[in-house]
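Handoff note, outgoing to incoming analyst
You'll be picking up this chain. Sequence as last confirmed:
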Amino acid sequence: MARTSGESTRRSLLSRTAPVRFASFTLDLDGCSLLRADGGDVALTHNEFALLREFVRHPGRVLSRDYLLDALFGRRAGPLDRGVDVLVGRLRRKIEADPKKPRLIVTVPGEGYRFDGLTKRFHSAPTGRLRTKRPAPVEPRNVVEGAGKPADDAVGSSARLEPPAAPRLSLVVLPFANVGGDASQEYFVDGVTESLTTDLSRISGAVVMARNTAFSYKGKPVDPRAIGRELNVRYVLAGSVQGEAARMRVNVQLIDAESGSHLWSERFDKSLADLFEMQDEIVARLANQLGAELVAAEARRAEQTPNPDSMDLYFQGMVWINKAITADNLAHASRYFERALTLDPRNVGALVGSARVDVDIAATYMADDRARHLACAETSLTKALSIAPGYAWAHAGMGGVQMYSNQAAQGIAECERALTLDPNLAHAHAIIGLAKIFIGRFEETEAHIQEAIRLSPRDNYLCAWLVLVGVAQLYLGSDEKAATCFRRSIEINRNRPAAQYFLTGALALLGRLEEARCAVRPAMALHPDFTISRFRAGASSDNPRYLAARERLCDGMRKAGVPE
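Most recent structure output, in case you need it:
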């Protein structure tokens, strides 16, 4: 079990005692750990350990839900309070051979739970035979620290544990409500909830409540703050589905479980032509948008933290990298990632974030030492993958580095690996589209970019993806289509110089020289160091078709007046 900053406090609340052995486990009350017979550590949360401690203190006794809530959190159960049941279910899944047929933690209908894992009280218990008849439930009692302990307290003080702070990026996806009440659509509604739970769990560092836990709230009134307390999560995602004629409407809200305030909402209105395809699209879009929203919410919390830790700094860096790709924004992001890695060199998110900054600098011709930035990115990503080999973003990032380093085939393979780990990773599709440009297969680029846009239509990289489509069209000789793509990119983000410079080349190739020369001014204002020679030196492939198409673009930019 991971140690926490409150471990010393918990230890002080427990009397020193020998390890407790039950079934195939050894419980170390002083070390706050649970070991299997093979020596493996069972990962228990703060609340799960506290619950198990209460059970081993009272073997064979029926502990009511009220007692457990009072002992753990200092509150009584409300009429819809299922917090103890959820916590018991989580603990059963970790210690029972068959959680559906529990033999250690037994449910006593109408009364509570009884721990049958110990055949006798452990060594410090009072002498005497354990009653074999079912005892009355243990009722809640208020215990003041230092006021003495009950006679049956075999371990030490029953001083109450304060509920720990909810983990970062912790959330529960509540079962979506079937507003129309059409039973035939129930499978679709539940499918959205289950798929979204699975996909959100792929977010690095996210703590997402399991499907069974979330579905215990199905059909019940939603109080986000109560649910947040019961499940110890920071965010609640709630939604509804309503079928009307040949269309389906989905509404989703992300709620701060601490304050109850709504952080973000989205609505989808789609045709019922293909329910499963629509379900996949809705889930993919939500997962991509929610990833950015959750990071932004965590960054806002981090801004209020007087002593930010490595993860706080990582979230703040991600906010800057999720903004428009400019030299200033990338510099801000880089500083946060550097501080995060100073505190924790193994922070995978910060390693990948730092690599993304270097790749973006190399990709946008912001520096002459392009090779150095790509080398730095490769070093960061190699370390990230050594720590977390299954992190999809790290594989996609490595794919980008390889493609910019004249290794497009390897880069495509890395991105395909990323997509097996996270099918919703829109950036992996976009990077593959870029690779097709580098290997001279311009005709294939747009399909990959369209897939990225389908998965994440409001992505902050959308303007960059449109530039890739424009470049592919320009290299195919479709200059008018290219100019349209560049203009669309500029409308979304006027601070991206690549779109501005490439537009000048497309306009010049169309023979609209005056318009092209006018377009150079805003481009140079954004990136005054951009030159044709820097662009030419940034070629990422030796593919002849690719190089010839780039020379055509260079001619266009030269005619428009871009500095040589």
